[in-house]
Design a protein that fits this description.
GO terms for molecular function: hydrolase activity. Keywords: Hydrolase. InterPro entries: AB_hydrolase_fold, Dienelactn_hydro. This is Dienelactone hydrolase family protein. The protein is an alpha/beta fold and 282 residues long. The protein has one domain: Rossmann fold, CATH 3.40.50. Helices cover 32% and strands 17% of the residues. It contains 8 helices and 8 strands, in the order E-E-E-H-E-H-H-E-H-E-H-H-E-H-E-H. An 8-stranded mixed beta sheet has the order 1-2-4-3-5-6-7-8, sandwiched between helices. Strand 5, helix 4 and strand 6 form a beta-alpha-beta unit. The longest helix is centred in the last third of the chain and has 17 residues. The chain starts with 23 loop residues before the first strand and ends with a helix.
């Protein structure tokens, strides 16, 4: 599910990374969650709350690089760890092992359409808890890759005011029905659309134009239901694109970011931070 680095990486630049230093780790057991839906969470920062759901294969140094940037941007950040080994770098074997676990887990329902995924119960509880103890009326949730759509599914809870849906890859896009599936059930999508229509929640979607793991049809479904409450940023990864992104570019906010002036993924990250500040700052 990860993408190859853009050609701009040839200059010696690399994506921003972070470590677990300074993060507080605790087990989240709120709202009477059953044991199978209890996971460790890492927290750092001050200010409005943001729940950052890691992409596959877990809380990698690149995910922590984004988390640190959010902390530096003035947010209290909670990073749940529902899969993978926190802090472990990406490798082919590690990624495949995590995907294999996801595929057989009832918690994630990797191939199901029109599905309410049990993991979202945990994420909603984490968001509500964070909202109750941080400034403002609610929190933001960022999902990426397999968890991209989970951010919006979390917005069923009134505590979520802003959802960032980055390269959503669930359910795995095998066949047209899965490609257009919004990563949540019809009932969940209806509730989120109702909240969006009332001005209670907004969403930001990000993807690469040639990303087959996160098909455009999924964003089209969300746009039909959410209208102008769903802002879309689509980065050009077509052959010969000016930024040099590879055909398999996938991770908009992590592995594809370069601290280079005018870099499109860096601009997308900047827009994401501004989006969160607009909707979360008291």
């Amino acid at each position: 599910m990860t993408g190859e680095p853009p050609a701009s990486a040839a200059s010696g630049s690399s994506p921003p990374v972070g470590t677990l230093d300074g993060w507080t780790r605790s087990r989240f057991t709120g709202r009477g969650l059953p044991a199978e839906l209890q996971h460790d969470c890492f927290e750092k920062g001050s200010g409005p709350g943001v729940v950052l759901i890691p992409e596959l294969p877990g809380i990698t140094p690149e995910v922590l690089g984004l988390a640190e940037h959010l902390v530096e941007s003035g947010f209290t950040v909670v990073v749940p760890s529902p899969f993978g080994q926190p802090g472990r770098p990406v490798s082919g074997g590690y990624l495949l092992g995590t995907v294999a676990r996801i595929c057989v887990s009832a918690e994630f329902r990797a191939f199901a359409v029109n599905a309410s995924r049990p993991l979202t119960l945990f994420l909603r509880a984490v968001a509500a808890d964070l909202a109750a103890r941080t400034p403002g009326r609610g929190v933001g949730v960022i999902g990426m890759c397999f968890t991209g759509g989970f951010a919006l599914a979390a917005a069923v809870d009134d505590s979520v005011l802003a959802a960032v849906v980055s390269q959503p890859a669930a359910p795995f896009p095998l066949g047209r029905a899965r490609q257009a599936d919004p990563s949540m059930s019809e009932a969940e999508l209806s509730r989120v659309a109702e909240r969006a229509s009332a001005g209670e929640v907004c969403a930001l979607g990000l993807r690469f134009s040639a990303d087959r793991n996160s098909p455009r049809a999924r964003f089209d479904t969300l746009r039909r239901h959410l209208g102008d409450a769903f802002e879309i940023i689509e980065l050009d990864s077509s052959p010969g694109n000016p930024a040099g992104f590879g055909a398999r570019a996938h991770s908009v906010l992590t592995t594809e970011v370069r601290d280079l002036p005018g870099h499109p993924a860096l601009a997308a990250r900047t827009r994401t931070v501004a989006f969160l500040h607009t909707h979360l700052t008291p």
